């Protein structure tokens, strides 16, 4: 019996028939390893098994047994009553739900919720089939489906980032399924992780090339926001501009991290230590909030109306929307007087703060220190090993931004 050998040295044998997803009879190709003697032995075992298959078609169970022989497994692979693509996706979702569970809660983390939603989307866009039919062609078809940016439920083309994320999920699912003992499936030997480029439309390319593509607030617009904001909302605005804090950094701020007129903490996302000198108006606003803060044993600074930290998830595992809801209400108040005011998210304040630092002459390294990036100097990843971060220099540029904003914010506070 003569076996074919591919360019990588793997011996192959086309043997038996199965039904494709379209119902067409096709031969199944087995990969028998790279050792010629062992490949011949496995091929003979496959021949004997094929001779016992009734009806001249591989069934899910017999094909799983044949694949086990081709891999050199002595005992047949244990199968389940239902080995389909959708059942595998369901099991994958459950495994991810267990992996990304909030400590002390039964609900998943924020990333877990996002991943579960992506898995459900992948299932909606994938035709169910027996796992025995889920081979290289089917995997590549799934990848090509998202590479080509399918239409969404809203009737629009899927966003490039959405497609890139879905491609990552498919690849992770293939790795998980290959290792899962619950399914008698192994990834095809021909499967390789190759680069995939999601195409952009001409309009999307043009938007990326515009000089001011990052939406931020102007200094005048910051003053308008400050004028209409409540005391707590003003504190959030100040911390976002002063310390380049986004939503998560505000919600995770703890009382021991406030040291005089400095905030000293390790950023939860990047696990990078940072220090921020507070402007006088920021320190006063923070002290005023702490004076009237509800009594609580929680170390977190910002509490909700019920006295619980705003960073704790809801009973369903969702993020509390305390800051986004207050921000939306603030923008609605502003819109009543300024109809052309931009409806930007709260985190655009952080980007506005970085833009203002650029305007006063701060370098990319200084901004990286203020934003607690893992490697502020990309060309020197070892810099942190040999020199401390330039917190004092960062404070100097932060003070320049504060000096620029203070007269404007003070005037708008009085004009309220």
Structure description:
The chain is mainly alpha-helical and 416 residues long. The chain folds into three domains: 68 residues, no CATH class; 107 residues; 197 residues, Intergrase catalytic core (hpI Integrase, Chain A), CATH 1.10.443. Helix content is 49%, strand content 7%. The protein has a three-stranded antiparallel beta sheet with strand order 1-2-3. A three-stranded antiparallel beta sheet has the order 4-5-6. Helix 4 packs across helix 6, helix 8 crosses helix 16 and helix 9 crosses helix 13. The longest helix is centred in the C-terminal third of the chain and has 25 residues. About 1% of the residues have low confidence.
Descriptive tags:
416 residues; mainly alpha; hpI Integrase, Chain A; 3 domains; three-stranded antiparallel β-sheet; 6 strands
Gist?
With 416 residues, the protein is mainly alpha-helical. 49% of the residues lie in helices and 7% in strands. The protein folds into three domains: 4-71, no CATH class; 85-191; 219-415, hpI Integrase, Chain A (Orthogonal Bundle), CATH 1.10.443.
Ordered list of secondary-structure elements with their pairings:
Elements (H helix, E strand, L loop, with lengths): L3 E2 L5 E9 L5 E7 L4 H15 L9 H12 L13 H15 L10 H15 L11 H12 L12 H20 L22 H8 L9 H10 L2 H13 L3 H5 L6 E2 L2 E5 L6 E5 L2 H13 L29 H16 L10 H12 L4 H7 L12 H4 L4 H25 L1
Antiparallel strand pairs: 1-2, 2-3, 4-5, 5-6
How many domains make up the coordinates? 3
End-to-end CA span = 91 Å
Low-confidence stretches at least 5 residues in length (pLDDT < 50)? 76-81
The average pLDDT is 88
For the secondary structure, the number of strands is 6
- What's the tally of helices? 16
* Succession of helices and strands: EEEHHHHHHHHHHEEEHHHHHH
CATH-assigned fold name of the largest domain: hpI Integrase, Chain A
Fraction of residues in H or I helices: 40-55%
Largest sheet: 3 strands, antiparallel
Identify the overall geometry: elongated
Radius of gyration: 29 Å
Return the CATH architecture of the largest domain. Orthogonal Bundle
């Amino acid at each position: 019996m003569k076996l074919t050998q591919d360019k990588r040295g793997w011996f192959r044998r086309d043997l038996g028939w199965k039904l494709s997803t379209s119902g067409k009879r096709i031969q199944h190709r087995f990969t028998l390893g790279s050792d010629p003697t062992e490949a011949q032995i496995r091929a003979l075992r496959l021949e004997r098994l094929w001779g016992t298959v009734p009806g001249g078609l591989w069934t899910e169970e017999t094909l799983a047994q044949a694949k086990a022989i081709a891999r050199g497994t002595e005992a047949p692979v244990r199968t389940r009553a239902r080995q389909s693509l959708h059942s595998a996706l369901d099991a994958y979702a459950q495994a991810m739900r267990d992996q990304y569970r909030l400590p002390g809660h039964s609900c998943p983390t924020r990333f877990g919720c996002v991943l579960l939603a992506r898995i459900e989307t992948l299932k909606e866009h994938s035709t169910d089939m027996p796992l025995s039919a889920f081979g290289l062609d089917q995997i590549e078809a799934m990848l090509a489906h998202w590479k080509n940016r399918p239409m969404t439920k809203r009737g629009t083309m899927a966003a490039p980032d959405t497609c890139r994320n879905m491609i990552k999920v498919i690849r992770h699912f293939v790795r998980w399924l290959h290792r899962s003992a619950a399914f008698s499936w192994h990834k095809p030997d021909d499967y390789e992780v190759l680069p995939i480029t999601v195409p952009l439309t001409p309009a999307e390319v043009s938007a990326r090339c515009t000089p001011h593509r990052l939406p931020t607030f102007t200094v005048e617009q910051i003053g308008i926001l400050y004028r209409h904001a409540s005391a707590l909302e003003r504190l959030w605005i100040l911390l976002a501009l002063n310390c380049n804090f986004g939503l998560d950094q505000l919600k995770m701020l703890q009382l021991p991290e406030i040291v005089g007129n400095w905030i000293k903490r390790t950023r939860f996302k990047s696990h990078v230590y940072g220090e921020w000198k507070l402007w006088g108006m920021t320190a006063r606003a923070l002290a005023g909030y702490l004076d009237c803060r509800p009594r609580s044993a929680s170390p977190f600074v910002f509490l909700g109306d019920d006295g619980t930290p705003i960073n704790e998830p809801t009973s369903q595992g969702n993020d509390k929307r305390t800051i986004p809801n207050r921000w939306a209400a603030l923008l609605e108040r502003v819109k009543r007087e300024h109809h052309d005011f931009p409806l930007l998210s709260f985190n655009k304040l952080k980007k506005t703060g970085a833009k203002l630092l650029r305007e006063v002459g701060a370098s990319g390294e200084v901004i990286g220190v203020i934003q607690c990036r893992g490697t502020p100097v990309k060309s020197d990843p070892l810099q942190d090993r040999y020199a401390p971060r330039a917190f004092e220099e960062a404070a100097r540029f932060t003070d320049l931004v504060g000096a620029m904003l203070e007269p404007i914010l003070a005037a708008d506070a009085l004009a309220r």
